Amino acid sequence: MEVTNREYALALDAADPLAIFRSEFVINDASQCYLDGNSLGRLPKATIHAVNDFMTNEWGEEVVAGWAHWVDEAQTVGDLLGRAALGAATGQVLVCDTTSINFYQLALAAIQARPCRKTIIIDAANFPTDRYILQGIARQFGLNLVTIDNEPGEAKHERITPEILEKYLNDDVALVTLEVIQYRSGARNPIKEVTDLVRKHGALMLWDASHAVGAIEMNFDANGVDLAVGCTYKYGNSGPGSPAWLYVSKRIQKELKVPIQGWFAQSDQFAMGPEFEKSQDIRGFQIASPSIIGLRCINTAFSMIGEASIKAIAAKCATGTEMMIELFDAWLAKGEGWDVMICPVTMGMDLAEGHTDSWKS
Length: 361
Description:
The chain is of the alpha/beta class. The chain is built from ten helices and seven strands. It has helices at residues 6-14, 45-62, 67-70, 73-86, 99-112, 128-141, 162-166, 191-200, 292-308, 310-330; strands at residues 93-95, 119-123, 144-148, 173-179, 204-208, 227-230, 245-248. A seven-stranded mixed beta sheet has the order 1-7-6-5-4-2-3, sandwiched between helices. Helix 8 (191-200) links the parallel strand 4 and strand 5 (204-208). Helix 5 (99-112) packs parallel to helix 6. It is flat, with a radius of gyration of 22 Å. 40% of the residues are buried. Residues 337-345 and 354-361 have low confidence and may be disordered.
């Protein structure tokens, strides 16, 4: 069947193992083709019940006594997120703070773990906040910031390959940081190959997975990832401003020292001691009290991702992306026009979603 035939998309929808999940999201306008899952995911219906239940039956009833079972939620929800979306074993993911704070924490911790090295590397097409934070760190500590020119530069579609990166690596490099998915072009950087190369040169690798988590398989543990950060409100469907997450491999948790030494990172938190003694596990990277309401949003959303499986979600993303490419080649590359098409980057979308009369004009 021709990809330009609407029946092709309808057939894919009919065979879609994730189709049932569409009914689990709040969709007030069924005719709207929602294309902004890369910025803010839809609201799961279960989240409404989870937040209301927390406010009424926990915060409302328990008040401060609730901290007896809330205090470790950044870790338990982190384990869920790691299991459902990152390919990470327990004890390596925290859900806390913002992506920017987590990025600063891990970037500076990695740099200070290589005290004799003065070079840090990022790319020009990276998300602005990551570039700005690294610029500030470089100024503050007198470091040499190398920015790979990939817009367009030598990288096709902004993609950083090991061959491109290796030209910038030497024994003075402390940290390399890249996005898993380039936020503008959608190019996917090779996690394992890049991480292995950076480690071969004795540096640490920090990935920003904000535009990848919840949409593709990343298999952090299997790919030997050192450090990573990301948000939860895009393909994670956890709500505007929901807490971010950080990943620190168990291999290096004891080695790294965080620059922001918060109360939650203290090895004996409730001893209220005079000096900071970092917890030697993942808790050592948490600064302060987590947003419990935000964690409940993440819990419902990533429980759904776990139920659907990131493997199935990634397969649907690949199918939709290939379909978009074929439609572009068939219609737009020849100068013809169209009104609307959907890229199925979340479970709550159909390939043929939208107005039936605007499939092609």
